[in-house]
């Protein structure tokens, strides 16, 4: 199977190279660290035990932070290499990784780059987060464990057609720790062994940090204005939310809508579009602060979501009002924000079902329904407090996956059964 994959990848490598070049031109790849993508290390390998953890992007990285603390506290001789594939996650890693943990870009899934990467770092245990099934990486990774595993409806349907291809990859894992019983069933059906329902480590994530001085400054500026935060929005969602803001502003005087795009480089584009509609807009990336006339504040920076959630009366989850699959609603809940989402939460199916069943997350069918639900949350403190209490209770009941995962990883590190 791996030789077939390598042959096919070799045939399409010119297209992959063009794609990488386009990403470089668009600023989605880091010119100064492209050697890491080719498997060439930028940092020396530390002595002692080394765990390699790989997650796709920002969400996976943030979910790993409490686990890193558990593992590093358990062993003084341990270092942790974290790899991701996006510039935003690399910037976040620079700010948030603890001592004895460090970041590198994941190598491209070519034989030569992966071989160079693994031969240099020689990790004792390899952790893959959620659904990162890169054939070359998995084939060469020492003692791999699948952490916080999930299998979306779309992926499951696709993999069932190529079970002969996915089964050898899944069988390499020492353990597969899944988010839900349904994920466990699907992975077993595809050929994974030693699969255990562990729960979702994202429920254990620490609250996002915030600059205390800036938070106080913003609270003073905003004063008693109702604040709606649109978190991790994607292309076309800002236009939808602009219509929601306009409709709500007729009944919610002085409403401030804060937009934090999933990809901060879109900040200028979003600002221009909103101004073209006649809105007063300011941008965080330009070091601007909202004033009394500001209708929209574009929070186009990295690593400041903790600020925006703390200011929110209600939070709209991005990626859920277009067919994208949604974004993580837990981060806002951790800080007492009341999250609302649209119909497209396929990437967080189990989490959405659990949170909506307890009232901790409010799901609506469209932006018209969103307006109706937002109105009391933005104008009635009692309604907000009741929603926040439901969120806190749900999080308390769902915690615990991180320490359980840490035990499995430490056992594998010591050479015992995972």
Q: Radius of gyration, Cα only, in angstroms?
A: 22 Å
What's the rounded overall pLDDT mean? 93
Report strand order across the widest sheet: 3-2-1-4-5-6-7
Helix/strand class: alpha/beta
Portion in beta strands: 15-25%
Fourth-level CATH superfamily of the largest domain: 3-Deoxy-D-manno-octulosonic-acid transferase, N-terminal domain
User: Segments where pLDDT lies below 50 for 5+ residues?
Assistant: none
| Tally of alpha and pi helices | 18
CATH topology of the largest domain: Rossmann fold
**Biggest sheet record:** 7 strands, parallel
| Morphology call | globular
- Based on the structure given, which CATH architecture of the largest domain is correct? 3-Layer(aba) Sandwich
CATH class of the largest domain: Alpha Beta
Distance between the termini: 26 Å
Number of spatially distinct domains: 2
Helix content percent band: 40-55%
Q: What would you note in describing this structure?
A:
- With 418 residues, this protein is of the alpha/beta class.
- It folds into 2 domains: 2-199 and 400-413, 3-Deoxy-D-manno-octulosonic-acid transferase, N-terminal domain (Rossmann fold); 212-398, Glycogen Phosphorylase B (Rossmann fold), CATH 3.40.50.2000.
- 47% of the residues lie in helices and 15% in strands.
- The protein is built from 18 helices and 14 strands.
- The strands form 2 sheets. The protein has a 7-stranded parallel sheet, sandwiched between helices. It has a 7-stranded parallel sheet with strand order 10-11-9-8-12-13-14, with helices on both faces.
- Helix 11 crosses helix 16.
- The radius of gyration is 22 Å and the shape is globular.
- The mean pLDDT is 93.
């Amino acid at each position: 199977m791996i030789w077939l994959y390598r042959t096919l990848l070799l045939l399409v490598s010119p297209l992959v190279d063009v794609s990488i070049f386009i990403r470089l031109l668009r600023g989605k790849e880091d010119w100064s660290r492209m050697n890491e993508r080719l498997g060439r290390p930028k940092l020396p390998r530390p002595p002692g035990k080394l765990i390699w953890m790989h997650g796709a992007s920002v969400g996976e990285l943030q979910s790993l932070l409490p686990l890193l603390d558990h593992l590093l506290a358990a062993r003084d001789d341990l270092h942790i290499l974290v790899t991701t594939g996006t510039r935003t996650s690399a910037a976040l890693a620079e700010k948030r990784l603890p001592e004895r943990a460090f970041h590198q870009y994941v190598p491209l899934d070519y034989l030569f780059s992966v071989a160079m990467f693994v031969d240099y770092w020689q990790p004792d245990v390899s952790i893959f987060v959620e659904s990162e099934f890169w054939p070359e990486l998995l084939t060469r990774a020492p003692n791999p464990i699948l952490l916080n595993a999930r299998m979306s409806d779309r992926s499951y349907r696709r993999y069932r057609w190529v079970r002969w291809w996915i089964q050898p990859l899944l069988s390499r894992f020492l353990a597969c720790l899944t988010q839900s019983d349904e994920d466990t069933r699907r992975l077993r059906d595809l050929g994974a062994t030693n699969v255990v329902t562990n729960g979702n480590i994202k429920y254990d994530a620490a609250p996002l940090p915030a600059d205390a001085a800036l938070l106080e400054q913003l609270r003073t500026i905003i004063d008693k204005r109702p604040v709606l935060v649109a978190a991790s929005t994607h292309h076309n969602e800002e236009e939808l939310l602009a219509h929601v803001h306009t409709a709500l502003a007729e009944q919610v005087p002085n409403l401030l809508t804060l937009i934090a795009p999933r990809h901060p480089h879109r900040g200028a584009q979003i600002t221009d579009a909103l101004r073209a509609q006649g809105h007063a807009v300011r941008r965080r990336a330009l070091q601007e602060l909202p004033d009394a006339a500001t209708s929209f504040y574009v929070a186009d920076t990295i690593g400041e979501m903790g600020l925006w959630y703390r200011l929110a009366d209600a939070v709209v989850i991005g990626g859920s009002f277009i067919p994208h699959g949604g974004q993580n609603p837990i981060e806002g809940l951790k800080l007492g924000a009341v999250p609302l989402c649209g119909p497209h939460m396929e990437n967080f199916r189990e989490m959405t079902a659990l949170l909506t069943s307890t009232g901790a997350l409010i799901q609506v069918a469209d932006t018209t329904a969103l307006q109706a639900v937002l109105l009391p949350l933005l104008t009635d403190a009692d309604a907000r407090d009741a929603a926040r209490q439901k969120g806190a209770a749900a999080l308390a009941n769902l915690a615990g996956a991180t320490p359980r995962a840490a035990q499995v990883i430490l056992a594998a590190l010591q050479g015992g059964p995972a």
